Amino acid sequence: xxxxxxxxxxxxxxxxxxxxxxxxxxxxxxxxxxxxxxxxxxxxxxxxxxxxxxxxxxxxxxxxxxxxxxxxxxxxxxxxxxxxxxxxxxxxxxxxxxxxxxxxxxxxxxxxxxxxxxxxxxxxxxxxxxxxxxxxxxxxxxxxxxxxxxxxxxxxxxxxxxxxxxxxxxxxxxxxxxxxxxxxxxxxxxxxxxxxxxxxxxxxxxxxxxxxxxxxxxxxxxxxxxxxxxxxxxxxxxxxxxxxxxxxxxxxx
Length: 253
What we know:
Elements: E1 3-7, H1 12-23, E2 27-32, H2 35-47, E3 51-56, H3 62-74, E4 80-83, H4 98-119, E5 127-131, H5 135-138, H6 144-164, E6 169-173, E7 178-179, H7 182-190, E8 203-204, H8 205-217, E9 222-223, H9 227-238, H10 240-251
Parallel strand pairs: 1-2, 1-4, 2-3, 4-5, 5-6, 6-9, 7-8
Helix pairs in contact: 1-2, 1-8, 3-4, 4-6, 9-10
Organism: Microcystis aeruginosa SPC777
GO cellular component, one term: membrane
EC number: 1.-.-.-
């Protein structure tokens, strides 16, 4: 039985992960902005045989994150933390406002950074999981600023892995498009519908949650959902022209 703290736990991947971990008998700290949604997830966790402590907070608020994680760890320790909170927008770069760009980085990058900084003192030989996105490598048209925020997450955790050494494991999970409300919310917030999406299979939230749960149990540095997504960093690094040509072809159809 582990004690696991999860941000972005009120819906989508975070909700599915909470239920999955509850079924495995773990004790959970669940954080998200929407308290009503958190309470619904807590009921599902209880029905699955688990126990949850709820922390309504905004991940952009460093103080709130430290208070929540310190409180949860103080109740019996912290074995794993999953920085899952995030959002996206689907807009061309030149149409993205300063406010939108700053909010993306505040939530996706700084929110994760605060979760890492707050949980690190408690993760003695534990696991920190950061949820990025395959768009950090795919870089599809229309996702420029969102992709940049996730690329920053990937870079941050790659360095954190070296800095943490043997203190605890750092896992970077990069899902592709997932069957959640994420993209509907992104396009609603953006007012733009982008057709040039990443050419990867769409996974269910339960599938991604199962992969994250397995990563907590058996940590690996970089986790992808399938071999297609695993190839993207290789293609981006070794054959960037091939990937760029692929996107141009996709966007013309």
